Amino acid sequence: MRQARHPEVGEMALTEVMAALSDPIRVGLVRLLSDGRERGWGELRAPVAKSTLSHHLRVLRDAGLTRTRQEGTRCFVELRRGDLDARFPGLLPAVLGAAEQEDVGHQVGLAASPAGQRR
């Protein structure tokens, strides 16, 4: 895998961020990553093919919502909460609150999670 490009905070465009958040699977990924933990791509589960999940992760990264890191053959992803809050104050809490209220992205989870944690 070539080195992934991540937009700088000033390069993040509201229209691209909103477009990335227009899909329930991507909203589910953002909800899952909102706990602040970096996750391996292999930990993520969604009702789509692996290639489609990879596409969703790329859309989130290209919009500046996530940061991807490669370590050997494994890829990891984390939410860029601080950068998003700096660029678009209040946007992420509003999106997460509405997604929680409407249960958007509920079908996204983790392959294996400790008891009591959302899958």
UniProtKB/TrEMBL annotation:
Keywords: DNA-binding, Transcription, Transcription regulation. It holds the Pfam family HTH_20. Residues 6-103 form the HTH arsR-type domain. This is Metalloregulator ArsR/SmtB family transcription factor. The keyword ATP-binding does not apply. InterPro entries: ArsR-like_HTH, HTH_ArsR_DNA-bd_dom, HTH_MetalResp_TranReg, WH-like_DNA-bd_sf, WH_DNA-bd_sf. The keyword DNA-binding applies. CDD domains: HTH_ARSR. It comes from Streptomyces johnsoniae. PROSITE patterns: HTH_ARSR_2.
